[in-house]
Amino acid sequence: MVLDALNWKILKCLQQNARLSNAEIGRQVGISSPAVSERIKKMEDAGIILGYKTVVSPLDMGYQLKAIITLRAFIGKLKPFLEKVKTYDEVLNCYRITGNENIVMEVVLKNQKHLEAFIDQLIIYGETKTQIVLSHVTRFKEIKPLK
Length: 147
Prior knowledge:
elongated; Lrp/AsnC family transcriptional regulator; Tscrpt_reg_AsnC/Lrp_C
């Protein structure tokens, strides 16, 4: 599916606030609510729009730490880890990457003791490095058209 300027305007509205009504999006981009609905449906069907989520504050949910953990898997441990990581509630995002490490995870933890216990679960799969997140500099940036 090729995205025209109108589709990009609709995507911009949704990326800024996915709870906007089709009528409000239509007012902002200059088309009717049914036309907005049809375009959104086509973008969903094409896999451009992958879903809608509620962003929750880990701190307000009781998690005191957010960390980035990299893992350099031991020989023969990467595939088992790729299955196991899906079961960890602490892991918000997990990426398989190139370079010295194989994995980067964004995790939320209750406290330092929880971090220690979590790392203890990981070290059977490989060497870990942990960085504590202090704050977000950018977050959920809007995807814009390629130039």
